[in-house]
Amino acid sequence: MKIDAVRKYAMGLAAVTEEPHHQSSSFRVRGKIFVTIPPPADFIHVFIGEEDRETALALYPEFLEKLLWGGKVVGLRVALASAKPNAVKSLVNKAYETRSLKDGGAKSTRAGLS
Predict the structure, then answer these.
(1) Are the CB atoms for 93 and 111 separated by under 8 Å?
(2) pTM for the whole thing?
(3) Tens digit of each residue's pLDDT, the chain (114 residues)
(4) 3-102 adopts what CATH topology?
């Protein structure tokens, strides 16, 4: 999957902006990050909860790995070159919903993990 397709999908979600985040880019909903794009944009970092994270890792070990921050697992690192587009879209959507619901926003109408 190409980063342009990820960008198009993420930006199609309600209230999403793309903003710089250190040397990376990020997708945010109402200012809260749900996906980052570290350079050179071969991977994305998706911030989802533990249950969804473990399910996704079991389904797609060929292109997902745990994302660590300070020794704590905070999300998933997605290798875009080998990723299945529908799975990436589901993960981006789940991260968006997780952030939206956590902050009291409306739930997306798009499908969950597939």
Answers:
(1) yes
(2) 0.88
(3) 999 999 999 999 999 999 999 999 999 999 999 999 999 999 999 999 999 999 999 999 999 999 999 999 999 999 999 999 999 999 999 999 999 887 655 544 455 555
(4) Aspartate Aminotransferase, domain 1 (3.90.1150)
